[in-house]
Write a structure and sequence with these properties.
The protein has 421 residues and is of the alpha+beta class. The protein has a domain of 205 residues: 3-Layer(aba) Sandwich (Vanillyl-alcohol Oxidase, Chain A, domain 3), CATH 3.40.462.10. It is 32% helix and 25% strand. It contains 14 helices and 18 strands. The strands form 4 sheets. It has an 8-stranded antiparallel beta sheet with strand order 14-11-13-12-16-17-15-18, with helices on both faces. The longest helix has 25 residues. It is globular and about 60 Å long. It starts with 6 loop residues before the first strand and ends with a helix. The relative contact order is 0.15. The model has no long low-confidence stretch (mean pLDDT 93). Keywords: Oxidoreductase.
Length: 421
């Protein structure tokens, strides 16, 4: 995704950010903040003023009594564990990629997995928004606007800082396995209920799945991290270097994909280890791809996944990337994909050199039929009229937007599509 802003501003503090917004709005220009550029959609694109928040890093304040930390908007997720470590704190849950900024992650609905845990926006107990006139709007945990502002798609203002509800630092015991897919699906409900953080990856054209089950332990528990050699083999050689080569081979010669997937499905998994939570939650990814992810009601994931298997078989596509399935608890964030319902996520990917359109379009239609809601930061084709039917508080969010940004200073083509002009 590319953008051609009229100019790029790089504020070094909140006061400079306020001036940038006020100056742009005063000149009749649209304003969009950009985080790490991780989203697959054009949610941060603008032809007006682009705000690069990469200088807004680090902790502003810590409330040790309530385990709350106030972070500047541009702080990258991968920096947060070391910032929290001196206070004995950790984020309750994380996704498997940590390159995003905290503001971008919560604004687009980034999530990890775990049936008892919400997405990252549920950790937000405060947010400071720069308004069109440059003023600051502080939204606290007792403010009725928080469920809108914590996951606002950038439509309600530019985030200056975010306050997170943290937890005492903890250890994760990880079990990674290569298992028969039929066994995984048969015991799926029990696994999801019994395990703090469960997910699985299915390699199309195979009968196997790579499972990940992470169990939370106290921070005082001993860690048994993978040795340097084992970590390099699994996280660098298999998950990135060889996977990149096999994706490239599959792109050039699609007929080899089933055999390559079968080999990959058996190689990945088969290790037990324990480490600080962030070290287990996150994984380094270097293979380029495009992604679409839909959230379906948790009790519909079985039928939806089976239908996806059948769809791939019927179309005889050759899909080198695994299908990823994760879970999240119901929450109260108005535009959260898990709003009001326990949720399962089904994500599909294609190597960046391959055409994704036919595959993604068909999968999207299938998952919509199962009550799916699209991830805001990943590829989808939904428009405001359809989305309004999927989110009970959609109209309430639009009313807040109309009040805070009536002139659509913070709008762009993406928001015009998903929220309306």
């Amino acid at each position: 995704m590319t953008a051609q802003p009229l100019r790029v501003e790089r504020p070094i503090d909140t006061a400079a950010l306020q001036r940038c917004v006020a100056d742009a709005a005063g000149a009749g220009l649209r304003v969009k903040a950009v985080g790490a550029g991780h989203s697959f959609t054009d949610i941060a694109a603008t032809d007006g003023v682009q705000l690069d928040l990469s200088a807004l890093q680090g902790i502003i304040a810590v409330d040790t009594g309530r385990s709350r930390v106030r972070l500047r908007a541009g702080t990258r997720l991968h920096r947060i564990p070391s910032l929290l470590e001196p206070y004995g704190l950790a984020m309750p849950n994380l996704g498997d990629i940590d390159r995003q900024s905290i503001a971008g992650a919560v604004s687009t609905g980034t999530h990890g997995t775990g049936a008892a845990f919400g997405g990252m926006a549920t950790q937000v107990v405060g947010v400071t928004l720069v308004q069109p006139d440059g003023g600051l709007l502080s939204v606290g945990d007792d403010d009725p606007l928080l469920p809108a502002a914590a996951l606002g798609l950038g439509a309600l203002g530019v985030i200056a800082d975010v306050t997170l509800q943290c937890v005492p630092a903890f250890v994760l015991q990880a079990q990674e396995r290569s298992e028969p897919l039929a066994d995984v699906l048969q015991s799926l409900a029990d696994r999801v209920k019994a395990t703090d953080h469960f997910e699985f990856y299915w390699f199309p054209h195979t009968d196997r799945a790579a499972t990940k089950a992470n169990t939370r332990l106290p921070g005082t528990a001993g860690c048994r991290p993978p040795g340097p050699g084992a970590r390099w083999i699994n996280d660098t050689l298999l998950a990135n270097t060889l996977f990149r080569a096999t994706c490239a081979a599959g792109s050039a010669v699609p007929a080899v994909v089933p055999a390559v997937n079968a080999a990959a499905a058996r190689l990945l998994g088969g290790r037990d280890y324990s480490d600080a939570s962030a070290q287990v939650f996150t994984t380094r990814r270097t293979v380029r791809f495009r992604e679409m992810e839909y959230a379906v009601p948790a009790d519909r994931v079985g039928p939806a996944f089976s239908a996806l298997q059948q769809l791939i078989e019927e179309h005889r596509w050759r899909i080198s990337f695994p299908v990823e399935v994760r879970w999240a608890a119901a929450d109260d964030r108005w535009l959260s994909t898990a709003y009001g319902r326990d949720t399962a996520y089904i994500a599909v990917h294609r190597y960046y050199r391959e055409d994704f359109a036919e595959y993604f379009t068909a999968v999207e239609e299938l998952l919509l039929a199962h009550g799916g809601r699209p991830h805001w930061g990943k590829l989808h084709s939904r428009h405001a009229a359809a989305l309004a039917q999927q989110y009970p508080r959609f109209g309430d969010f639009l009313a807040v937007r109309e009040r805070l940004d009536p002139d659509r200073v913070f709008a762009n083509a993406y928001l015009d599509r998903v929220l309306g002009a």
